Amino acid sequence: MEDQRRMSARRKIIAGNWKMFKDARETSIFCESLRAVYKPDPRFEMVVCPPFTSISAAVYALAGTDIAVGGQNCGWETEGAFTGEVSPRMLLTSGCKYVILGHSERRQYFSESDQLIGKKVQLALSLGLLPIVCLGEKIDEREAGKTEEVVGRQFDGAFHSVDRTGFDKCVIAYEPVWAIGTGKTATPEMAEEVHRFIRGRSASRFGAESASEIRILYGGSMKPTNSGELLAEADIDGGLIGGASLDVGSFVEIAASAPRR
After folding, report:
1. Range of 155's domain?
2. Looking at the domain assignment, is residue 247 inside a domain?
3. Is residue 88 part of a domain?
4. Is 261 among the domain residues?
5. N or C: lower Cβ tally within 10 Å for the chain?
6. pLDDT score at 8
7. Catalytic one among 103, 137, 192, 195?
8. Is 175 designated active site?
């Protein structure tokens, strides 16, 4: 009964990862349109994560709402001679509340290791920025039956130097790599199985209470046609939305599909 109450108390997060889309003008238009149709809802929190150059435009356009802004990545140092990097402190002072870390595209295209992602998580937390930590397996790893091995290793790397207080401020996103941008989606049952594993891993490392309160998002091609079923699963606490978050109507429709408990 206590676990059921905690599950009901977890406010879902509907976060849009815009990747390398929308310049500052397009961001302003989107955010103005979003605030025109958005109504605060205790079931969910909305987050938009635009490119670095559009963060200020999003923060300005969403001022006075409870829609949060996040960065898509950050560096592993507060400042320094790191051409092209953006520090978590810079994101925070720009108005960001969240930062996505460990996304599969950062791992694949920029060779980010579990160790590096762990350093970023620790630094972001120390500065007051809330990490959305991504975990997920590739298709060959799933077919080889290594999903839990891969996701578990990524979990351990991301939270290696994080204590319970820090972990309680984090959000986790399970994003099966084979379902990102491919149109393929894990069935609700498949996604729930991995979310349940992550919650169990959280309990083993940080205790049952932290595990029951951590929010775990699904990040593999969630869209209005499947979001209701996915969000109805007990351990799926929202979505890290890619393509569908670029359209105001789709983004709001996904949020509205969050079940009432």
Report:
1. 2-256
2. yes
3. yes
4. no
5. N
6. 54
7. 103
8. yes
Annotated active-site residue in 45, 105, 137, 175 = 175
Res 5: pLDDT: 44
Q: Which CATH number do you get for residue 231?
A: 3.20.20.70
Residue 258: HSE in the Cβ half-sphere, 13 Å Cα cutoff: 25
For the chain (261 residues), the mean pLDDT of every run of 10, in chain order, is 55 98 98 96 96 98 97 97 97 98 96 97 98 96 95 98 97 92 82 98 98 96 94 97 97 94 61
